[in-house]
Amino acid sequence: MISVIIPTEGVEQPVVATLSALVSGAAAGLVRDVVLVERTQSDAARHVADVAGCHFIRHEGSRAAALAAGVRAARAPWLMFLHPGAVLDAGWIDETAQFIETIPPRGKPLAAMFRYARSPYTRNGVGETLQRLSRLIAGPSTEQGLLIAREHYERLGGYGDARHAEARLLAKIGRAGRIMLRTRIFAPA
Predict the structure, then answer these.
(1) 3-state DSSP call for residue 176?
(2) Are 89 and 19 contacting, i.e. CB atoms less than 8 angstroms apart?
(3) Stated pTM of the model
(4) Which terminus of the chain has a lower count of CB atoms within 10 Å, N or C?
């Protein structure tokens, strides 16, 4: 049902944390495949992909172009974009499956995002307070993950090769075109 696309950015440990939260979704049959997209020359993500059974793509270019390459390699009708280090809270499987099942095929297309949760390992400080305030004013950010039907993603034009393509896609979806799931996502600081 879902293909998960993760831009690895040359890091290993955060990707492993994200993948560990997806194991139960794969066991339940919800996660069809995971695509790790690497833009650097690091082989750390390739090793993780080999061990975890993920697809691995090395793509030179912008982050948006790398994510678009990940979408082309994905096989499922639903796409989930996660940042490395983002960990979904328990219960994400049931809520995600329910969201997918309740979206009518010809109804108004909707995308979903997960509720931001501050990592318990994040330091308190002025920076964290400013980020929380920014989230309240600006709304959800790309680090909260995105769940979208492939057809809807393509109809919106996907990720262009422009700067801030992830934020632009969220803007195209709009507030009325997305819902906030109850499941929390612990995003890296």
Answers:
(1) coil
(2) no
(3) 0.89
(4) C
Is residue 115 within 8 Å of 92, Cβ to Cβ?
no
The structural domain count of the chain equals 1
The mean of the pLDDT values for the chain is 87
Domain of residue 130: give its range: 2-187
Residue 175 CB coordination number (10 Å): 10
8 A C-beta contact, residue 80 and residue 147? yes
3-state SS assignment for residue 185: strand
CATH number of domain containing 69: 3.90.550.10
Q: What are the residue ranges of helices labelled H in the chain?
A: 13-27, 44-52, 63-73, 92-102, 126-138, 150-155, 165-173
Phi and psi at 99, nearest 5°, equal -60, -45
- Estimate to the nearest angstrom the gap between the alpha carbon of 43 and the chain centroid: 22
